Amino acid sequence: MSRKETTGQAITRSLVAHGIDTVFGIPGAHMYDFNDALYGAGDKIRFIHTRHEQGAGYMAYGYAKSTGRIGAYTVVPGPGVLNSGAALCTAYGANAPVLCVTGNIMSHLIGQGRGQLHELPDQLATMRGITKTAERIDHQSETGPVISGVIGKILSGRQGPGAVEAPWDVFGRSGPEVDLPIGVRAPHPAVNSDEIAAAAALISGARNPMIMVGGGAADAGAEIAALAELLQAPVTSHRSGKGIVADDHPNYLNFVAAYEYWKKVDVLIGIGSRLELQFMRWKWLPKDLKVIRIDIDPTEMVRLKPDVGVVADARDGTQALIDALAGSGREDRTREFAELNEEARSCFQAAQPQLAYLNAIREALPRDGFFVEEICQMGFTARFAFPVYGPRQYVTCGYQDNLGFGFNTALGVKVAHPDKSVISISGDGGFLFGVQELATAVQHKINVVAVVFNNSAYGNVLRDQKQTYKGRYLGSDLTNPDFTALGESFGIRSFRVTSPGELKEALEKALSLDEPVLIEVPIEKGSEASPWPFIHPAPHAG
């Protein structure tokens, strides 16, 4: 006689079979049978409960973004799903494989509009609007196919988040325990040799090619560096592409330096990138520019049509291009790139006090440590002024730029990398979006070092209201708690420092401790130099 298991147990068994070892979340009535199944899984799955559903979603995001593996979380339906929605749309915008497991009202009441506990008019449609895929398990027998199907879609092609829901009554329904299918990544598109030949021909005639990498190229760093060396071309990146080719590689150009080089670029090679920097931020194109794109997402070739589009995995496409260009050695130009980087660094020395503090963080953070940015003056400046040496080590929110993601995301990064140093930077405004997760850090011993730069303002809003709206301030001034006393009230070791030198010392001490740490850095309100001229530079003349 075959063994029986509930839908909740089958979901849990499927998660384990797919290599998911951690689930973040908050238990709740609709989810009890699934929550109990997670308990029954013992040490096969670690459950980390948070103090807000958004925290659970962001921790799953940090886990996924920093590893490339699935980050999973569970919340109750309705308000729980909506509270975590910001994290889901961050995962969608930053192509992170996040899985949400949630419930729904009783199956016979879905769509009736009776006003049941946590009911949404159409939860599945709501989730489909902010994920790559979302499905419902209507019966215990569907569990394996639905979970494997969603996971397969999450991992295939351009990655992104997915969601699975089951009605309240379905989680506890029993059925035979059967072999569960495993969702697999679809095969990468075959590299089209004609497209590669066309790209190689364009590059062969180019004098000043430039390579732009994005998050889609995270696993292609070695091939991209080899292509850059072969072509003696510079490589640059914006956010998610940071560290794919290390900042200290001779062919890497900081994007402030890259904008200077942009004047003479004749072929732009985009690899796993939307080319946001060139087309949405620089907003100036060199005359007769040709564009080559290597991207696994065919839709990208329609969104921004290149002269040559290679629909392929970044590593496969780049290697094919290297093979097609073999033997086309070029004169070494790395001295030129070094000079451009030096000029750029000299130029953005003006971004103070941010630069001095970021330098202190970089000196304290080990080369293989993780830096989690935030929507704040330090975070914006870090995009061009914080060197990164490996893929996924600079954790960003992608184009959503959603305030308050940073600290919670950093907790997920640390759970995924318990033996690596993880530093989170936040402004006072963003940090208070997720401050309750200090309790999660203590309870689950998640040893993130959180640095809060306190300028008593939403800094960007304050600056814009001062400059553009003649000082008509609305909602940009902030009254804050004593952050070190607040941290200590959670049981967190807390420090206050007032200079870059003190911050470096405090970070070195914090990273040597086996516990979470909070460091407050007071900054004079409105004192930061604007980073925006470096991120949105004025168009080149001519």
Characterize this entry briefly.
The chain has 24 helices and 19 strands.
Helices and strands, with pairings:
Elements: E1 4-6, H1 7-17, E2 22-25, H2 32-40, E3 46-49, H3 53-67, E4 71-74, H4 79-83, H5 85-93, E5 98-104, H6 123-128, E6 133-136, H7 143-155, E7 162-167, H8 168-171, E8 174-176, H9 193-204, E9 209-213, H10 221-231, E10 235-237, H11 255-262, E11 267-271, H12 276-282, E12 290-295, H13 300-303, E13 308-311, H14 314-325, H15 334-347, H16 354-364, E14 370-372, H17 377-385, E15 394-395, H18 406-416, E16 422-427, H19 428-431, H20 437-443, E17 449-454, H21 459-467, H22 483-489, E18 493-496, H23 500-512, E19 517-522, H24 532-535
Parallel strand pairs: 2-3, 2-4, 4-5, 5-7, 6-7, 9-10, 9-11, 11-12, 12-13, 14-15, 14-16, 16-17, 17-19, 18-19
Antiparallel strand pairs: 1-8
Helix pairs in contact: 1-2, 1-7, 3-5, 3-18, 9-14, 10-14, 11-15, 16-17, 16-23
